[in-house]
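Q: Is it fine to ask for two folds in a single conversation?
A: Yes, each is treated on its own. Send the first.
Q: Here.
A: Result:
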Amino acid sequence: MSRADDERGVALLTVLLLVAVMATLAAGVLEEIRFSIRRTANAEAVGQARWYAMGAEQLARAQVARLAASGSVAGAWSGRGASFPVEGGLIRARIDDGAACFNLNSVVAGAPDAYRRNDEGVRQFVNLASALGLRRREGEMLAAALVDWIDSDPLREASGAEDESYGSADGGYLTSGALLAEPSELRAVRGFTPEVYRRLRPFVCALPAAQLSPLNINTIPEEKAVLIGMLAPEPLPPEAARRLIAARPPQGWTRSDFLALPAVIAAALPAEASGQLTDTSSWFRLETEVTLGDAEAVATSLLARDAAGRVRVVARRWGPEE
């Protein structure tokens, strides 16, 4: 074979290699373009799903305002779900009483930068923890740690935990000195192990106020009857509290009728705890799930109704609750 033939062969091989490289690069570019298109389409679908969720939130606000205007926020609405078909998907929504829970922020009282221990809130927390199977001493230690996490002073509660308890740990941090924004923050507080958090989570919430939860006697379900039991100086046994809620008449109780029940009279509720009981609701929790093709948006909103009947969104979380 002549030298010219060799050179032509090398040139041909070089061209073939260049073609192969260019084809590989082109395939990679095309795949990146396809991925970008899919990503853009998914982002648009998720964005649209979120807008649908926001629309459901507005409908819920209007419905709560109508219920309040008609005087029908006693309890029959709580726990009801609804589904709304939309083009290419479905909206599912459920509204519950947003205060049918122990407000974790009620272990303190006062204003921002001046939060201090609230003995009544601490007492109720300890009663709730005991009703859920925790030792009373453990409940007291958890309550003290929670007070120290929220309160404004650097003084440690007996069995509590201030900054020095967290700053010395790996990846040290400081106490919040502010109200909890959501219950998942408990996992940063000393003593709230995954097991403790799992037990407490269905019964607690973080209302954006340092106040005892206004408990609507007509929206508390039987499985949360311990919320009534925790109010008594000597907490009602869970089964006794459950029987009390199970006896609720179909039309619900008025507050005065509930307080006149023999079991409630026998419980000798302190005045502060008795004042928590109500037969209407001012806090509402909305769960919204939107599916739109392969996209999904999940939101949890906390709505508040003021004395004039106006309803506003005070908190919103995207994604499933932890």
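Q: Second one now.
A: Result:
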Amino acid sequence: MSTEPGVARPASTILLLRQGMTDAVEVFMMVRHYQIEFASGALVFPGGSVDPGDQDIIGRPELYAGVVGDDAATLDFRIAAIRETFEESRILLARSRGSSELIDASRAGAIADAHRDALNEGKVRFADIIADNDLVLALDLLVPYAHWITPEGMKKRFDTWFFLAEAPPEQVGLHDGKESTDSIWLSPREALEGGASGRFTLPFPTTRNLIKLGKQPDVAAALHDARGSAVVTVMPVVTKDGDKRTLRIPLEAGYDGDVFEMTGAP
């Protein structure tokens, strides 16, 4: 999707959750390739820009399930979130038509082996992959978690919805080696400690969402809390005082404050 310079491009990302061996919530994250233009080398959640093909799927309701009422406002963002996650990690949030269960790791892997490279290269449409495999996208499993818009004045901007979803059983994910060079399941605490030590580069929205997620004792609690919480749009305002930069965000967004010193990646 092309936009004018400085105009926020619609984008989506998913915080895929699972219960860790130590009972802590774990989230799936990826290290972006250092040659990628945006957030190069950063540890991020899988996701990317909304494509025209995602919007085309809206007109084919037989390909998705569970989105009604206010959720329809984020329909193309939800579709993009599942597509981008599949492209980047091989994890596919979908059910066989007529089934209430998510497809298993074996079938998701077979679909990825057959189609992911072609999808990434623009040789096949995501809608056709879903239709040809008689699947239904599990949009109902995505819980809106956050909505961030890159500050005005920056050349490359995104209007990004963050969603929570419990990862399909046994679908562990695997980076593509192109846009992402590594992938890892880790607790929010481990990710934040890695950012503090310099092991990871964490963009500011990623850091704040990890801190927020880290307050939850388990996956069920995280999903329950997100379903009961209103999402407040965050578009940080950047201010400079010499070499010091601060970001101001809405206090009601739930990030434990409204003014933060800018110390990490944008």
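Q: Anything structural to flag on that second result?
A: Two points. Residues 33-40 have pLDDT under 50 and may be disordered. The chain has one domain: 9-231.
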